[in-house]
Amino acid sequence: MSTSAIRRQSRNSLRAELPLILWLVVVWGALWGDWSPGNLVFGLLLALLVTRTLVLPPVRLSGRFSVVHFVLFVVTFIWQVARASIHVFRVALTQGPRVHNAVLGVALRQNNDLLMTAVGHTMALIPGSLVVEVDRGNGILYFHVLDIATAEQAEAFKRSVLDAEAAWIRIMGSREDLALLPVKGDPDRTEATGAVESPTEDMDEAERGPGQERS
Question: Of 15, 30, 51, 200, which residue is the least packed, with the fewest Cβ within 10 Å?
Answer without folding.
Answer: 15
